[in-house]
Design brief:
The protein has seven helices and four strands; from the N terminus they run ββαααββαααα. By secondary structure, it is mainly alpha-helical. It has one domain. Strand 1 and strand 2 form a beta hairpin. Helix 6 runs antiparallel to helix 7. The longest helix has 25 residues.
């Protein structure tokens, strides 16, 4: 089966087998993340590589490049969930960002957006450099927060997914629009599930 061949049309736009497979794997990945099961990370690697091909074909170069980052950082995230910790010999657990952590999260996000947007505008032929750059920049930060099990990662994904829905609708990637709409709801579910497992940090140093 050719993954790039059309499976069906959705609202006037072709939907490929590639998009269908990536859709299924991405949903399964988020389900594992919500349950804190480390098997979500290998699924993240596979689905990210599939979405790289899909987004590159749609000239969403920021999102395409982001998928390569996702595949690489998924290896780090997998190791963190299996072997990582918070210090003092404690295993990695769900925690809330400290004030300094929240400051750096917002600062890095605010810096990455214009830098990424400028790069896409200058060096690629994308027609949506700034809107492509926004979810790209915030996803980089969100993936780090997820890898370290900070509950704020779910809030980051809600913002990313809302913007991505509009971006993919503009590109006619309707199955991916449905996926990211589901991601919004799943991010809320993830936030609530992780709230029940939340372990407060003892100091601002972690």
């Amino acid at each position: 089966m050719d993954l790039f061949s059309n499976a069906f049309s959705l609202w006037g736009s072709p939907t490929t087998w590639l998009e269908i497979v990536a859709f299924i794997l991405a949903l399964a990945m988020v389900g594992f993340n919500i349950r804190e099961l480390h098997w979500g990370w290998p699924l993240a690697i596979i689905s990210s590589l599939l979405y790289f091909a899909l987004f590159w074909q749609s000239k969403l170069y920021g999102d395409a490049s982001l998928q390569i980052f996702f595949a690489l950082i998924a290896l780090w995230g997998w190791w963190q969930w299996l072997r990582g910790g918070r210090g003092g010999g404690a295993g990695l657990h769900v925690a809330r960002l400290t004030r300094s952590g929240l400051f750096w999260t917002i600062s890095v996000s605010a810096l990455l957006w214009p830098v990424t947007g400028y790069f896409l505008k200058r060096y690629t032929d994308t027609d949506v450099p700034w809107w492509d750059a926004f979810p790209t920049a915030l996803s980089v930060v969100g993936q780090f927060l997820l890898g370290r099990k900070y509950i704020e990662n779910w809030l980051m994904w809600i913002v990313v997914n809302v913007v991505s829905v509009a971006l993919f609708a503009y590109k006619g990637l309707w199955l991916t629009v449905i996926l990211y709409t589901l991601f919004i709801a799943l991010s809320v579910v993830g936030w609530r599930a992780w709230q029940r497992r939340l372990v407060p940090l003892r100091s601002d140093s972690h």
